[in-house]
Predict the structure.
Amino acid sequence: MKYAICNEPFEDKSLEEVCRIVSDLGYEGLELAPYTFAEDVRELDSAARKQIRNTVEHAGLEVVGLHWLLISPKGFHLTTEDSGVREKTLDFLKSLMEFCRDVGGKVLIHGSPAQRSITDDQDWAEVEARTLSAFKRLGEHAEKCGVIHCIEPLDIGQTNFIRTPVQALEWVDRTDRPGFQTMIDARACFEEGLEPGEEFRNCRRGVSHVHVNETNMLGPGMGTHDFEPLIRSLHDCAYNGFVTVEPFDYSPGAEHIAQESLSYLQSLEQNF
């Protein structure tokens, strides 16, 4: 397996500086948040996209892919009753697939819990029928772009729609498109009372990416949870994709979090 970290914890640092730090620490990949490059990445031309890719690759890293997909521009929603908003959301997600391809990424992590939750007055059956059609369209476009669109199961504290890896795998099966898969987010599993390693084993056939993070919002090894079962599962299943450190609390400093997290993960892997 390969280790990566997200770019947004480094906040005001340039992409060149972020890549230097991440590479020097020993990471192999960088996962990108589109909003850190432009409010709307559709405004970035081919030269700007090529520059992003070249900067990352020049540092000896890979662009893993994208996450935080719908944070900007504002106004997107996947399950709303407003068909116009739904279509704009799908169009934007498709444009992100093209951006991901252009910067050298392979996966898009579709979390965006606020932009997919269902309200009490909605008919769940109707929402699910529409969403299945949307996921099929997303999977088809992902295949055209040579990327994978991964729906991210997120806990009840974040969303009421697609909360567990098993639920996400059911959507993968129903969608039945190679370009539409799922992933494991450790923090969301812990919040749901689930063991990420067990969830990975149960859902392995549909999992194309892994996020590692603590319920205290820091990196792995910086909280109370044991990541050994997850790393063991990844090792036993010969997972060869990326494992991305995704903190949400940046207060200890991005470089410190990156260093502590990678050291911890590597120490676990030494046991196998």
